[in-house]
Design a protein that fits this description.
- This is Tripartite tricarboxylate transporter TctB family protein.
- InterPro entries: DUF1468.
- Pfam families: TctB.
- The protein is mainly α and 167 residues long.
- It folds into two domains: 73 residues; 79 residues, no CATH class.
- It contains six helices and two strands; from the N terminus they run ααββαααα.
- The protein has a two-stranded antiparallel sheet.
- β1 and β2 form a beta hairpin.
- α2 packs antiparallel against α3.
- The termini are far apart.
């Protein structure tokens, strides 16, 4: 037996951090909102799945995962740092705002590529090859998945040159 094992009291549980509880609560609220909102869209039609089925399933999954997270935290609370990384929060919020502002001008593929490159290379300090591959796969892959797989049109570039080359 080590000194640490003799000093630790078996069965003692730490408290769940307020920030963790706030995160769990926020996910539950978003999940419940998705569940309730999707009911108005219709879950099923005479032709098959309705427009509300996917958001309903995602809302249910989010609520279920939040409950599992809460149970996990009750069993063994995670060690949380003293506070959130304010630089990371600001970088994400500002980069999302910039992405939303330029999406109609440069299009989804280029905008998402630049967004992902910023977070992978600048914020995440990843190498060039992995950053380029992930950003390219993420932006082009999401574009094709939405445009051709789900028939959801994403913004194309408003600049004629970019539009002419398929962005």
């Amino acid at each position: 037996m080590t000194t640490e094992s003799l000093m630790a009291k078996p069965g003692t549980k730490g408290r769940i951090a307020k920030s963790v509880l706030a995160g769990i609560g926020a996910f539950v609220v978003v999940g419940v909102y998705a569940l309730v909102s999707s009911l108005g869209l219709g879950l099923w039609t005479s032709l098959g799945p309705g427009p509300g089925l996917f958001p309903f399933a995602m809302g249910a999954l989010l609520v279920a995962m939040s409950v599992l997270w809460l149970l996990q935290e009750l069993r063994r609370p995670s060690e949380t740092p003293g506070g959130a990384d304010l630089g990371l929060v600001i970088a994400v919020v500002v980069s999302l705002a910039v992405l939303a502002a330029v999406l109609d001008l440069i299009g989804f593929q280029l905008g998402m590529f630049l967004f992902l490159m910023f977070h992978l290379k600048v914020r995440g300090h990843r190498g060039w090859p992995s950053s380029l591959i992930i950003a390219l796969a993420g932006s082009v892959g999401a574009f094709y998945a939405f445009n051709y797989g789900l028939n959801v049109t994403l913004p194309a570039a408003g600049i004629p040159f970019l539009n002419s080359i398929g962005l």
